[in-house]
Structure formats: structure tokens, C-alpha cells
Write a structure and sequence with these properties.
Order of helices and strands of chain B: HHHHEEEHHHHHHHHHHEHEHEH
Distance between the termini of chain A: 73 Å
Number of domains of chain B: 2
Oligomer: heterodimer
Number of strands of chain A: 10
InterPro entries (chain B): 4Fe4S_Fe-S-bd (IPR017896), 4Fe4S_Fe_S_CS (IPR017900), Electron_Trans/Redox (IPR051684), NapH_MauN (IPR011886)
Structural class of chain B: mainly alpha
Number of strands of chain B: 6
Distance between the termini of chain B: 26 Å
Helix content of chain B: 55-70%
Largest sheet of chain B: 3 strands, antiparallel
Radius of gyration of chain A: 31 Å
Organism (chain A): Candidatus Accumulibacter meliphilus
Largest interface: A-B, 47 and 59 residues
Radius of gyration of chain B: 21 Å
Order of helices and strands of chain A: HHHHHEEHEEEEEHEEHE
Low-confidence stretches of chain B: none
Keywords (chain A): 4Fe-4S, Iron, Iron-sulfur, Membrane, Metal-binding, Transmembrane, Transmembrane helix
Mean pLDDT of chain B: 93
Number of helices of chain B: 17
Strand content of chain B: 5-15%
Protein name (chain A): 4Fe-4S dicluster domain-containing protein
Strand order of the largest sheet of chain A: 1-2
Shape of chain A: elongated
Shape of chain B: globular
Mean pLDDT of chain A: 88
GO molecular function (chain A): 4 iron, 4 sulfur cluster binding; metal ion binding
Chain lengths: 302, 320
């Protein structure tokens, strides 16, 4: 309707002043057609620019994806990053079922990754409090899955050698987690700051009084994770990453004797590490943890 | 308009004058012409006795707000009735998956698991029954925001502070095809990145995000440049549900004998091309079902002073 008005107004402007009684009609019918055509052309150009603009902005979402050097730590059972981004429907059902609220959704600064779940292990790691990997069960599209479809590749070093045994249900008839691949692997990134390496102990709240993270302590309540700050530690040699690891045989403390005869300690990550990030969360060294999880890293025996 | 013609119009074609008009409709058309003074008199009578109502709008807003808050409170209060977001959710355990999001994921990922299929099929049947684009006006949170900002846009236009710019309606079909191709070729659900429906739904459930800035930008664009531009010319979700709605029994029906052709309905309508039939002389029959691009929002039903537009369920009205 608006176009008609525009056309009529333009026609009035371009039409010559009437000379006789019959002429204006003739002039008007002649002038109208090109003007309407022009209005249509303008509408077409405007529409083309709009399509270009919206698509351009949408494609900007590729930049953060392409430039991401270290990918996010994704929830357990996540497909490879590319497949994960294509299959995730961005509904957040995994966020809703997580008993320790470890899963968060990315924002639009992550481009195509907007609304896609990730775990910030330092803030709140996945401690498998749910036993069954609820986020995998909740996922409607198979972005998080126990068993990958056959067509998708499995990188070397990603599958776990044996089904991971959950320490919390070690005495159950079925003690394993139904997880086939790791989501990352832990690494002692800053040995110089590691308390065990320095031969130091630890006493107090692992992450201070303000830390909001939760952890399941089977000795307190198998089904109810409690805030880490409410569970102070007293260790002669700091070994929190080893004792709090929810997976059996995923990390151990190595003891060695130095040249001067003194005992040396060092946490060693083992092949059963699934990359959950509990060691990174619990590490009492501030601000950066001595041990961290490298997301999507395969296991390499070195 | 034949159903085929209505679908063509939804994809962006301009509505055409009917070629075949029933004898009854022809008679009504000519009667309206012949008795002009009488026609004006009944029109005035209808105007004078008009009931100003927002019945359908209020019902719709209530449903929209309730549905979106049900998502929010299912998470916040952990009542677990409707878990997830608009893109995908579970209603007391049953999977529901938004058709356009499902399409994007299926094209990008090229692997469909059982839950994805079940959720998509359920939602397909649901909206095929409930009117297709009724998703837009009765559920989509962006629709409600855009409706409020549209009011501001119309105010500014009437004061000549901004001018209205139309785009070609075919752009939405172009977007639909491009976003489908982009998903299939790039393997990323590109549209989901900028979908204000998904962004708003997630923000309502999981808290505010930077992405809301994009939604605000869209609203500002609609206020200062083009009325309801996103819903009218861009959103592929609307077209997806429109296609589903083509087979839906729930629609608005036009009744020629009650119409005075004043055009109020076309002024309030998000998709006025579906109301081409109300223009004097355009109706091919005594009753015409409004096309699939109609969002079943009911604004025209509310605004019509003479009851020429009513909600209708195909088959049901004959049954009753």
C-alpha cells in the first residue's frame, strides 16, 4: 500500500503541469509506469541489501569458531567439536539436569557456538554426581552420546582403554560409567606451583570461603553434593587431585628419592583419565591451578 | 483463492484477482455496488454498534506468556513440566523439537537419532492440528516483543517521524533456502546463531546474554525502518510453520456477506497479503479460508466491527 502512495507522490512531482482538459490524464498514465517500476526496483535493491546484510552478520558467527585455538571443555559424551556444533540444538536440557550445575551455555561472542553447552572446570567440574551421565540422557539430538554413530570418526587416544570405574559406586554390581571416550585429559601444567611437588601439605578450605563449587563426598552423602567450602581438608602432603578424582586409577601420586636422599612427590595422570576436571577445580593453588584439563586432548603415553 | 494460490502467496508472490467467482458471491458483490446508500447506512449501523474487544489478543498474550514462563519455572523451581528451551524441550518427558531447529540440525549433522525424530514428528502433528503459524503469534517470544515495538513504530509513522520501508516478501523464501543450504553445506546451524526466538527463549530460562543485543538491534530496525521486518521478510521459522499450517484445519474464515470492506483488518495484520480477499470484489466465494501464512493471531477477528472474520475449525463447524 505504501508503494502506491510513494508512486502517486512521485508521479505528481514528475508530471508536467496540466495544459488542457484532456492532457493530464495522458501524462499521468505515461508517467506512472516508469515510476512504479522505479519503486519496485528500489524495493528489490533494498531487499537484496537486506539479504546480504543478514547473511553477512550470520556468517560472522564463523570467525569465533575458526579462531578458537583451545576449544571448550564440553560435557561428557560430546561429539568431536565440528560435529558437536552441527548437532547441538541449543536447548540447554543438559544444563537443567546437571546436579552440580557444571554446564553453562556459550554466548553470541562464540558465534556459531551460541547456546552450546560447555564446562568451566575451574569453577565447577563434572564430578559424575549423577552416576548415569544425565546430560547424555537428556540430549535430544545425540550431541552428547554414549555411542557415536558409525559414520563419525574416533580419534586415536580418545577412547578409554577400559570402562571408567566410578569410585562412588565401586561396590555396586555395575561400577562403571557408560562412557567410551574421554572429553579431555588432565596435565600437571604448573609443576613448580604444585604443593605436592614442593613437598607441602594443605589445610583449610580448598578454594577459599567464597568458592561456590560443589563436589560429591561419598563419605558424607552419596546423593547430595555439598559445597567444597563446607568440607575443609587437613593433609600433610597435598594430594587433593588424587583423592578427589571421581574415577578409579585415573591419577596417582608418584614418590621418588632425590640425589640428596629427600623424598619427592608428583601427581601423575593415568590413561583412565576422562578429563572431567575435578582435579583442576579442587587444586588449592591460586589463582591458576597447578593441574588443568586440556579439552579434547587425546591420551598420549609420554 | 485456491489453496495452491495461497501457498504461492506465502512464498512471496503477489495476490491475484480471482478468475472464477461463484454466482452467489457475484450477486453479493453487485448488491453491494447497487445499493450504495443502503450499504453505507448498514455500515454506519455496524460501526455504531461495534464492540471494541481485545478478546483474542488477550487470550493469545496470556498463552504466550504462560508457555514461556512454564519453561522458565520448570527450570527455576525444578518443577520439570516443560524442560529445555523453545528449540527443543520435554513436556512431562515427551520430546518436543522445534521444526525449523530440527531441520537445521538434520541438514547440518546429517544424522537423525530416534529422540530427534520423535520430537520433530510430535511437534509437526501438534502444529498441523493447531494452525502452523499459530506457533508464531501464540508461542514465539520475539513475536510479542515485536508486537509491542510495532505499536511504537506505527506511532512514529503516524507522526511522520519515521517512514515505512517495505521489502519484497519473497526474501523470506530466499532466506529459508539459503539457511537450509548453508546448514547442509557448512555443517553449522547458521540460522540458530541469529534466531531471536532461540536467543530470547534461552535468555528467559538461563539468564540474560550478550545475544540480546542482537534482538534489540532487530527491534530498533523495525521501529525506525520497516514494520515487523524480521517476521515478515526474514524468519524461516515462520515459513516452516506456514508450510505445516497449509494442511491445518484451524484457520480464520472470511465471510463476504458480513464485510463492509473498510480494511481495518488489513491495517492490524502482520501478513496483510493473506487478507487480499477482503478487498472489494476479490472474494471468489461466500466464505474463504485465510491462507497458510496467517499466524492465527486473531487481531483481525478482534478488529472487525461486523464479524466478517471468525476463527474456524474445518469440519468441526459443520459437525456442531
Amino acid at each position: 500500500m505504501n508503494d502506491k502512495k510513494e508512486t502517486a507522490a512521485a508521479a505528481d512531482g514528475t508530471a508536467l503541469p496540466p495544459l488542457g482538459e484532456a492532457k493530464p490524464v495522458v501524462i499521468n498514465t505515461r508517467a506512472k509506469a516508469p515510476v512504479r517500476k522505479q519503486a519496485n526496483r528500489r524495493k528489490f535493491i533494498r531487499s537484496t541489501f537486506m539479504i546480504g546484510g543478514v547473511l553477512g552478520l550470520a556468517m560472522l558467527g564463523y570467525l569465533p569458531v575458526a579462531s578458537a585455538r583451545n576449544s571448550r571443555l564440553r560435557p561428557p559424551g560430546a561429539l568431536e567439536e565440528k560435529d558437536f556444533l552441527s548437532s547441538c540444538i541449543k536447548c540447554g536440557q543438559c544444563v537443567q539436569v546437571c546436579p552440580v550445575a557444571a554446564i553453562k551455555l556459550d554466548d553470541i561472542d562464540h558465534g556459531f557456538g551460541v547456546g552450546v553447552p560447555y564446562i568451566d572446570a575451574r569453577d565447577q567440574a563434572c564430578d559424575f554426581s549423577c552416576d548415569a551421565v544425565q546430560c547424555i540422557l537428556a540430549c535430544p539430538t545425540g550431541s552428547l552420546t554414549y555411542i557415536k554413530p558409525a559414520a563419525l570418526n574416533i580419534r586415536a587416544g580418545m577412547p578409554l582403554a577400559q570402562p571408567p570405574v566410578l569410585k562412588a559406586k565401586e561396590d555396586d554390581p555395575e561400577p562403571t560409567l557408560n562412557l567410551r571416550e574421554r572429553i579431555g585429559v588432565a596435565r600437571l601444567a604448573r609443576p613448580e606451583s604444585c604443593l605436592a611437588v614442593q613437598g607441602k601439605g594443605f589445610s583449610g578450605q580448598a578454594r577459599g570461603a567464597d568458592f561456590r563449587g560443589h563436589l560429591r563426598y561419598v563419605s558424607i552423602d552419596r546423593w547430595q553434593p555439598v559445597p567444597v567450602r563446607e568440607h575443609p581438608y587437613e593433609r600433610e602432603l597435598c594430594d587433593l587431585c588424587v583423592t578427589e578424582c571421581p574415577i578409579k586409577d585415573a591419577i596417582q601420586m608418584i614418590e621418588s628419592v632425590a640425589a640428596d636422599g629427600s623424598k619427592q612427590y608428583r601427581p601423575e595422570v593415568l590413561e583412565q583419565c576422562v578429563g572431567c576436571g575435578v582435579c583442576e577445580m579442587i587444586c588449592p593453588v591460586e589463582p591458576a591451578a597447578a593441574i588443568i584439563v586440556d579439552p579434547r586432548q587425546p591420551w598420549s603415553a609420554s | 483463492m485456491s489453496q495452491f494460490e495461497q501457498i504461492r502467496v506465502m512464498f512471496g508472490a503477489a495476490p491475484q484477482k480471482p478468475t472464477v467467482v461463484t454466482a452467489e458471491a457475484k450477486q453479493v458483490h453487485s448488491l453491494k455496488r447497487m445499493t450504495k446508500a443502503d450499504f453505507e447506512a448498514i455500515k454506519q449501523h455496524a460501526r455504531d454498534h461495534e464492540l471494541v474487544t481485545h478478546k483474542w489478543r488477550n487470550r493469545r498474550w496470556a498463552v504466550l506468556i504462560f508457555a514461556n514462563l512454564l519453561f522458565t519455572f520448570s527450570f527455576w523451581l525444578d518443577i520439570q513440566i516443560l524442560e529445555g528451551a523453545l528449540t527443543a524441550s520435554r513436556f512431562v518427558g515427551f520430546h518436543l523439537i522445534d521444526l525449523n531447529s530440527a531441520l537445521q540440525v538434520m541438514l547440518a549433522h546429517k544424522h537423525i537419532i530416534v529422540n530427534l525424530f520423535i520430537g520433530t514428528a510430535t511437534v509437526f502433528v501438534l502444529w498441523a492440528l493447531l494452525g502452523g503459524r499459530s506457533f508464531c503469534s501464540w508461542i514465539c517470544p520475539y513475536h510479542l516483543l515485536a508486537e509491542w515495538f510495532e505499536w511504537l513504530h506505527l506511532k512514529l509513522v503516524s507522526r511522520k517521524l519515521v517512514s515505512e520501508h517495505e521489502f519484497h516478501r519473497g526474501t523470506r523464501t530466499v532466506f529459508w533456502v539459503i539457511f537450509a543450504l548453508l546448514a547442509a553445506v557448512s555443517g553449522y546451524t547458521v540460522f540458530e546463531t541469529i534466531s531471536p526466538t532461540g536467543i530470547l527463549s534461552r535468555a528467559l530460562i538461563y539468564g540474560p546474554s550478550l545475544a540480546l543485543g542482537w534482538v534489540l538491534l532487530l527491534l530498533v530496525f523495525e521501529v525506525v525502518y520497516s514494520r515487523r521486518a524480521w517476521c515478515r521478510y526474514v524468519c524461516p521459522i515462520g515459513l516452516t510453520y506456514g508450510i505445516v499450517g497449509a494442511i491445518s484445519p484451524v484457520r480464520v474464515e472470511y465471510r463476504l456477506d458480513k464485510c463492509f470492506h473498510e480494511g481495518d483488518c488489513r491495517k492490524v495484520c502482520l501478513v496483510p497479503h493473506v487478507l487480499d480477499v477482503v478487498i472489494k470484489g476479490r472474494a471468489a466465494d461466500m466464505t474463504t479460508p485465510i491462507g497458510p501464512d496467517c499466524t492465527r493471531c486473531g487481531l483481525c477477528v478482534d478488529v472487525c466491527p461486523s464479524g466478517a472474520l471468525v476463527f474456524d475449525v474445518k469440519g468441526l463447524s459443520k459437525l456442531l
